[in-house]
């Protein structure tokens, strides 16, 4: 026999009282007076039928009040209905997974752990968290539970134990939330970005805003890579701090043209002068290192940002193809460039010399490990091959089974999404770049 929860039992009890009261009310209101009239042998007492109506009404009111409190009705009826339907499905899933306390294993009734739903935005309710109270008995089961089945219309992204270890947290987003935002002008883009970012951060999509950091970006042709890069460049140039960009696009595609227009030819390079620009960037980093030496001595654990300096970005598009083209160079020269880039990747973050590397595919040959390991922000747009995913993120990466269109993909960043379970990214479509 299927087990019931204590809440179900209370519900059945309350509804039984309501139904029985209504039957009594109907009986005493309609039929009982007829009996009183017809049976004259004995004097039947008069019964106030409205007592039963009042009882049914009071129990209904109590049920409604409890429902309203439990589902936070003060946040609006549609909120309460969403809250109720998600909680109900999660409770059913937990019940069917037999989460009951060991002591209750043989009982017909089970006590389920407490469940809370927190939406990131109470009005649109497209993303949020399901929190399930942890107890020593549930720990392992909660860890293994796939909550997706219970969250119809939603996808669960990552799950973890809260810091106080009292709750198991499942982040989820609605499938409908993956609709791409269209941004029609540079001004709108900046306004959108400024809502969540500061002068040293970038907004990637509706949900993700990250501080400036080294970035590894992969995406096949048509994945929206160039649009994404241009969106980031627009944001960097709009900041109140005068950040500087150095851009290399070996194939002279859209990014090259955009860079020439926005930052000028001095800091833009194609295949031919790429190494010079990399060396120039490295020299700037060395200079900055000397400048900041004294500052760092007296200010421990501080960065260029605390010293009030702008960031310097080195963006290398089509890195795989560029490195391939260096094959004709002497080995010494190639090693020198690799060591410069590794130095930037290793030292640059604290000094504000940020490396952005974009490529179509990533493997041990296209990207030296010393550089790859420092690319803290990892983004893959569109569909990539398995080796690329594993090289960029981690060997055990769990790529969500989603068919990505241009501008969609996955990312990882410490604190937001781990390399084993990257999060979905939906870059807004900046139609003004067309
Ligand atoms: N965020 C986005 N949302 C929707 N569509 C997009 C987005 N970004 C780009 N696109 C569409 O995808 C097409 C290809 O984008 P983009 O040129 O950025 O790709 P790419 O990966 O750089 O390809 P290529 O290497 O050929 O330049 C664009 O013409 C654009 O219409």
UniProtKB/TrEMBL annotation:
InterPro entries: FtsK/SpoIIIE/SftA, FtsK_dom, HerA_central, P-loop_NTPase. Keywords: ATP-binding, Membrane, Nucleotide-binding, Transmembrane, Transmembrane helix. SUPFAM superfamilies: P-loop containing nucleoside triphosphate hydrolases (SSF52540). ATP binds at residues 219-226. Gene3D superfamilies: P-loop containing nucleotide triphosphate hydrolases (3.40.50.300). The chain crosses the membrane at residues 12-31, 51-69. Residues 197-390 form the FtsK domain. It comes from the Bacteria. Signal peptide: none annotated. GO terms for molecular function: ATP binding; DNA binding. PANTHER family: FTSK DOMAIN-CONTAINING PROTEIN YDCQ (PTHR22683:SF47), SPORULATION PROTEIN RELATED (PTHR22683). This is FtsK domain-containing protein. It comes from Geomicrobium halophilum.
């Amino acid at each position: 026999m299927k087990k019931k929860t204590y809440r179900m039992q209370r519900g059945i009890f309350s509804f039984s009282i309501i139904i029985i009261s209504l039957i009594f009310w109907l009986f005493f209101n309609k039929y009982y007076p007829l009996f009183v009239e017809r049976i004259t042998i004995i004097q039947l007492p008069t019964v106030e039928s409205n007592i039963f109506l009042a009882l049914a009404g009071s129990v209904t009111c109590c049920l409604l009040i409890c429902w309203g409190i439990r589902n936070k009705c003060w946040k609006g009826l549609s909120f309460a209905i969403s809250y109720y339907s998600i909680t109900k499905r999660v409770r059913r899933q937990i019940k069917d997974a037999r989460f009951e306390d060991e002591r209750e294993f043989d009982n017909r009734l089970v006590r389920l752990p407490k469940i809370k739903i927190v939406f990131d935005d109470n009005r649109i309710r497209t993303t949020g968290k399901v929190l399930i109270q942890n107890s020593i008995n549930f720990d392992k089961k909660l860890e293994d539970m796939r909550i997706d089945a219970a969250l119809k219309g939603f996808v669960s992204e990552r799950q973890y134990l809260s810091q106080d270890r009292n709750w198991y947290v499942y982040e989820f987003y609605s499938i409908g939330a993956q609709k791409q935002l269209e941004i029609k002008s540079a001004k709108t883009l900046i306004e959108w970005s400024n809502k969540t970012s500061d002068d040293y951060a970038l907004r990637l999509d509706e949900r993700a805003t990250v501080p400036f950091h080294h970035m590894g970006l992969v995406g096949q042709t048509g994945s929206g890579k160039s649009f994404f890069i241009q969106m980031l460049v627009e944001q960097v140039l709009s900041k109140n701090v005068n950040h500087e960009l150095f851009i290399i696009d070996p194939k002279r595609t859209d990014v090259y043209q955009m860079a020439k227009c926005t930052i000028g030819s001095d800091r833009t390079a194609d295949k031919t002068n790429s190494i010079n620009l990399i060396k120039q960037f490295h020299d700037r980093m060395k200079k900055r290192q000397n400048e900041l030496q004294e500052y760092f001595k007296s200010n421990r654990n501080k960065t260029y940002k605390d010293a009030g300096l702008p960031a310097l970005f080195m963006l290398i598009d089509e890195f795989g193809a560029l490195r391939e083209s260096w094959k004709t160079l002497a080995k010494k020269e190639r090693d020198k460039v690799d060591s410069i880039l590794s130095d930037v990747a290793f030292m640059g973050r604290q000094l504000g010399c940020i490396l952005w590397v974009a490529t179509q595919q990533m493997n041990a040959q296209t990207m030296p490990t010393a550089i790859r390991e420092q690319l803290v922000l990892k983004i893959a747009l569109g569909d990539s091959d398995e080796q690329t995913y594993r090289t960029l993120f981690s060997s055990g990466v769990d790529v969500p089974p989603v068919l990505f269109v241009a501008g969609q993909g996955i990312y990882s960043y410490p604190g937001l999404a781990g390399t084993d379970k990257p999060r979905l990214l939906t870059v807004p479509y900046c139609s003004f770049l067309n």
